[in-house]
Design goal:
single chain, alpha/beta, Glutaredoxin, 2 domains, four-stranded mixed beta sheet, three-stranded mixed beta sheet, 5 helices, flat
């Protein structure tokens, strides 16, 4: 009787192991099929996957569409770390950038251009040349991103005066 029970248990274990191997090989085949389809449109698929991952998992992102001026500023944690670390001149840098950009935006008269200020790290741009695109701006504290439908992206990451920014906006969006 005990031999029969042990035999039945062994048979059940063997059958279960065999079924698991079949399931695993079917899953491997599905993965291989998916990998092949990815390689067909790899750049588009990769960009779409990146956008989906960012949308689902990262709160620190912003999405840009159309003709846009995106003003980049550091988030409060980074700014406060500069203050705490004794970075001299951070208030001047912040003020100079703010005056230069705001003066240029006040003088800029193009109605179909969106203006946004962000301290977000990840920027999703959807309709420029080479888009969709995700930018990690971790190393850019202050700057501007100009983007337009079917236009090349332009990124400025230095601090300039009002005249420079106004000229930049007019040239890009003319």
């Amino acid at each position: 009787m005990t031999k029969n029970i042990v035999s039945i248990l062994l048979m059940l274990i063997l059958v279960n192991c065999h079924n698991q191997k079949e399931d695993q090989s079917n899953n491997d085949q599905d993965l291989k099929t998916e990998d092949t389809s990815l390689s067909e449109n790899s750049s588009e698929v990769k960009a779409e996957i990146e956008l989906e991952i960012i949308e689902r998992t990262l709160k620190d992102s912003i999405r840009i569409r159309g003709n846009s001026i995106l003003i980049l500023i550091p988030d409060s944690l980074r700014f406060n770390s500069y203050v705490e670390d004794g970075y001299e001149g951070i208030y001047e840098v912040d003020s100079d950038f703010g005056f230069g950009v705001s003066g240029a935006l006040d003088s800029f008269n193009l109605k179909n251009v969106n203006e946004q200020v962000t301290d977000k790290r990840f920027i999703q741009i959807e309709d420029c040349n080479g888009c969709p695109l995700v930018i990690d701006r971790d190393t850019i504290d202050y700057g501007i991103i100009l983007t337009g439908i079917d236009r090349d992206l332009k990124i400025e990451q230095y601090i300039f005066g009002q005249g420079y920014y106004l000229n930049l906006f007019n040239e890009y969006f003319k």
